[in-house]
Structures are given as structure tokens and as C-alpha cells.
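Here is one such protein, fold included:

. . .
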Amino acid sequence: MHEGNPNGSSSSCENQNGDSENEISSKGDSSLVRSKCVKMGAFPLTHKDKDIIRLIGQYLKNTGFEQTADKLVDESGLYLEHPVATQLRSHILAGNWTKAEASLAELHKLLSSDESMMKEMKFSVLKQKYLEMVEDGKLIEAIHCLRYELTPLKFNTGQVHKLSTYVMYDSLDELKEMANWAGKGYASRQSLMEHLQTFLPIHIVLPPKRLDKLLDQAVSHQIHQCKYHNRSLSPHLYDDFSLLTDHICAKDSFPSRCTHILTQHGDQVWFCRFSPDGSLLATGKQFLLLSATDKQVYFSQQQVNKFTSLLATGKQVSLLF
């Protein structure tokens, strides 16, 4: 975390005209006063404050509110990430690979990281450089990068051999499929930067999309703690849930009325599980009954044992009939 130098430590601060905090507040500019006092050190930010500011700043930048994020940095006196990390991001998104490698070298000086980690980061940058050259049809330059930049790293030799086959692709779509790559442009470069962020400590740069992950964890925890939760989740989690209130399912929304009685069992039922979409119910002890609307299928004891053991491992089991 990098901060501006405080100019004082008093409990109040004054503007350039000599007005005190209280005097300016009475004029209706309390938010401005607070901002100036924070930067002057009169209202020192707590560790929590600093973390939240960095999280919000990262989110604003990720969603395209660059000017708003810059204003936050200016008012708080904090940097969202180390200047060298900012340079690295800028060079990668611009596709300036020579300068990106230079920024990596600068980061290496700042960190007491092992060589293998730096090799992996440099390998990832050179891999992106190589793939973009291949896409652009600059095959001679791509082969030079492969032979004289990637290979000497002596990192992930198998991947290097695989990369060498990409120069023989028949179409751009084939290259993207073979390399599992989005192609030259912002998407793949941003993905590369997010990958590099996972190697760097938080005082240099935040983990990618950190606020999103924290909110996802909070929502998942609320769902887990919801006593009467019985709603299927949308692939887009926040289509179903709001961050503005805690998630609670009403008690009367939980199924409480008997709609069907299984009469096929003549003994104790030791196992019962619904399929993910709720259309199938597996029950069993001596035999297994699967029911979906009007379909009923019976299995032998051996098949039941195999099926239940697979379910116990948590693996996904598909049955076709």
C-alpha cells in the first residue's frame, strides 16, 4: 500500500484561507473537508478503510469508470496498486512486450520471489507475444521468439513443444481452439494480466476481481445459512439475489405438503436423493427406483451398490433410459 505523506496530525484541519473544519462544514462543504483532512492526515484511514478503498477502486476500473477511480485515488491519497504494476498492466494491454518484460524485471527487484515464479510469469507474457505473432502471420518472428526467448527459459518444455505446432494452423479459429485462447486483443491480454496478478503480493497489486469474489462468498454463505432455502440458482447468481439485503427464504415457501407416496419399497429406505433439476428421485436399499413423471426403472443390487458408491464420492452420475 502506498500513501501520500501526511502534513499534520491534529484532530482538525484548515483550508488555504485559514478556515477551520467546523467553519467550512457550516458552509455545507463537509465532504470536501473530510477529503482534504484525510489527505492531510487529520482523519487517518484505518487498515479496513484502505482495503475497502482499494477494492472499490479496482472494481471501478474493471467496470470502465476510470475517471471515478482516479478521483478516488486523488481524494484518498492511496494508490490502488504499485506504479510498476500499473506500468506492467499498461504495456500488456497495449501489446508492448519489450516494455512488459522490462516491467517484470522491475517487479523482480521489488520482490523476494523465487526464480521459478518469475520464469512462469515471463513465460506467460512470451506465450501471449508468440501467439499474437502467429495470428498476425509473422511466422519468422514467432519462431525466433519460440527458439531464442521461450526455449532458453527451460520452463514447461512440453508446452513449448506444443506451441511449436501452432505455426501450422489452417485457420484462426483452429489456432484459438488448439491454444484455448481468445485471440489477439483486449480479452486475452486482460486474461494474461489477471493470471500474472495471482503471483503478486497484495501490497503490489490486488488479486483479480477481488470484490466480486468477496461478494460471491458472502452470498454463498447466506444461502448456506438459509434454513428454508429451496430455490434453484441461476447461472448468473445476482439475477436471483440482491446485495442490498440479506438473503432469507420465507418459511411458507418451503415445501410442506405431501404430494406423492412411494409404495414400491417393502423395507426400510436407506438412501434418497433428488437429481439436480428435481425431476428424478433415487431411493433404495434392496433395489433402486428412479422415477421421472411416468418412468420407473429398476436395477439389480449390484447396480445399486455401484450407483450409490459413485454418488457417495460426489461425482456426477448420468443415467440414460
Summary: The longest strand covers residues 288-292. DSSP finds 13 helices and four strands in the chain. Residues 4-12, 14-28, 288-296, 316-321 have pLDDT under 50 and may be disordered.
